[in-house]
Amino acid sequence: MFQIDWPLVWVNSASMAIAYLLALPIAWNREAQTRSAGLRTFPLVSIASCGFMLIAISAMPDTGSQARVVQGIITGIGFIGGGAILKGNSNVTGTATAASIWATAAIGISVALYRYEIALVVSLLTFVTLQFLGKAKKAVRQADGE
Predict the structure, then answer these.
(1) At residue 126, does pLDDT exceed 70?
(2) Cα gap 114→112, rounded to integer Å
């Protein structure tokens, strides 16, 4: 008979909730900037990455198999992020969104591996970069006469 390990259910649920919450500031920024990905995409990327890692940890106790799951997540999210990049006549847009989608996957993976300090730093630095360095980039371009 199938037994539910309730303590594990609560720990995994808490992990996915943390991954979700740490993705929200990034999602809020992208949504406020009316980017192609926003409030739905970023939390989903984070919890899906966390979920895949939690499954790998419970189903594959050897670190080699877990590393392959990480590689798969990184590759898959890179593919999704690539869809956010658009090339026009002389400009390319969406690279910050693509990079932040990738960073959000790192948040989910870090939380699943109980490396909360990494998840928190990635979340914070990604948000700060998106929130403040875009304005600095525009100021530098204006100063250079572009």
Answers:
(1) yes
(2) 5
Residue 1 in any domain: the answer is no
Residue 80 is assigned to a structural domain of this protein: yes
Closest CA to 9 of 48, 43, 54: 54
Structure tokens at 85: 């990049």
- As a whole number of angstroms, the distance between CA 130 and CA 32 comes to 11
Chain segment 8-21, per-residue pLDDT in tens: 999 999 999 999 99
Is the pLDDT reported for residue 35 higher than 80? no
Q: How many domains does the chain have?
A: 1
What domain range includes position 94? 6-140
Report CA-CA distances (Å) from 133 to 8, 126, 130, 138.
40, 10, 6, 9
Measuring CA to CA, which residue among 101, 113, 99, 41 is closest to residue 70?
113
Distance, in Å, from the CA atom of 94 to the CA atom of 115, rounded to the nearest integer, reads 29
pLDDT score of 139 = 80
Residue 145 placed within a domain? no
92 DSSP β-pair partners: 87
* CB < 8 Å & 24+ apart, contacts of 91-98: 94/35, 94/36, 96/129, 96/130, 96/134, 97/30, 97/35, 97/36, 97/37
